[in-house]
Amino acid sequence: MRCKRVFCHGWLILVSASMLIATSAYWCLRRHFYVPAPPVVSDCVIVLGAATRKGKLTPDFERRVKYAKSLYDQGLVKAMITTGDHTPDEPYTCAETAARWLHNHGVPAENLYVELDSERWHCTGSKPR
Fold this sequence. Notes:
Blueprint: H1 2-33, E1 42-47, E2 52-53, E3 56-57, H2 59-73, E4 77-82, H3 94-104, E5 112-114
Parallel strand pairs: 1-4, 4-5
Antiparallel strand pairs: 2-3
């Protein structure tokens, strides 16, 4: 009986060690055999609007616009659509502000499309208080 128990424990240890070694080998070697998919080139990217302050992009909005610009610079998108509504205290819509920033940073005007019909409260059915 003792011999059978020792055999079972030994077998269990052997199987566990084999699984550990196989898993470790997989995790170490997978990056050598991984072939990344080629990047997909898109017709456009939509840059969703966010807050602006005194005609300037807020930090969060600027990060979003810069990321879209990096996609454009890498050749992954051909054009950009900027969106965003107009708040009463701002001279331009979020879409216009983002498009102006992109144009000032090297994106040609023919690759920029500005969506001007956004209204923040239109789709919710409610009005601001």
